Amino acid sequence: MKLGKFKDLAKKRFSKEKIAQMNREVALEAEAMRSLQKNIKEALDLYMEQQKIGFNEVVRRLGSTPRQIAQIQKGSSNLRMSTLAHISAMLGQTPVIMFKKK
Questions:
Q1: pTM, to two decimals
Q2: Helix (H) or strand (E) holding 1
Q3: Which of 14, 15, 72, 96 has the most CB atoms lying inside 10 A of its own CB?
Q4: Is 66 exposed, middle or buried (0-12, 13-18, 19+ CB in 10 A)?
């Protein structure tokens, strides 16, 4: 379904207030995703620098694919919780997720 058709369907099905609420939620989700990606990328970059290791060694240590590590380094990955836990164990750190009221 094209975006234009979806928007037309949404206008017919939902009130303006509901659409505005959904748009705010989408914006918050996108912001949260960018923040998480940035934090994971920075933690991995710091780990690589401190350990004096390169890309291929991170791939090896995580048992991951080069593509997934490249996505993490670009800040464009969409990680599963198990992958996050695996990265956390490699880093020797515990991830902390905090929720702040907007």
A1: 0.78
A2: none
A3: 72
A4: exposed
- Enumerate domains of the chain plus CATH numbers: 15-91 (1.10.260)
The model's pLDDT over 46-66, given as tens digits with 9 standing for 90+, comes to 999 999 999 999 999 999 999
pLDDT tens, residue by residue, 90-100: 999 998 888 88
| Exposed/middle/buried for residue 68 (C-beta within 10 Å: 0-12, 13-18, 19+) | middle
For residue 95, give the 3-state DSSP assignment.
coil
Give 61's contacts (C-beta < 8 A, 6+ positions apart).
Answer: 53, 90
95, 84 Cβ separation under 8 angstroms: yes
Angstrom CA distances, 26 to 20, 32, 63, stand at 10, 10, 33
